[in-house]
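Appendix B.2, paired examples.
Example (i):
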Amino acid sequence: MPKMKSVKGAVKRFKVKKNGQIKRGTAFRSHILTKQDAKTRRKQNAPKVVAKADEKNIKDMIN
């Protein structure tokens, strides 16, 4: 049986932490940030984790 290929787009977007959670980026961070208030921009800098319901699908795509 051949090995499953990983989804390269998912590999670039997600990282698995030591405790098994999956780190992700946040949306609306690329450009035109002047329209956002400072509180929103500050909150987008905080680390984000994928929801529990999506973890299995993402781990299948990564591995």
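Example (ii):
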Amino acid sequence: MTSLPEKLAEAFRSAGVKSAYGDPVQIDGVTLIPVALSYYGFGGGDAGEGGAVGSGGGGGGVSLPIGAYVKSGGTARFEPNVIALLAVGVPFLLVAGRALARIIRALKK
């Protein structure tokens, strides 16, 4: 019987580059390669001691489309998905702004 970490490693062996870059798509002679920000998190489990019932954990992942590489002619460029970047950027700016405000308040005292 394999352990939980070995099962997770086998299940997500191909989760690296394949989850960040999609398969190229041809549209009217232009090649599009979708790009996403992907990350995963997992919990663990315990078998218990002395015949006690064990406990388990869980996990999950997120994939956010951030844009696409567009290749037409002899040039390639990155076209960002502005809506997705704003969805990620706005909460980050709010948290960073609050942290900066607290730092400035602490330095004034």
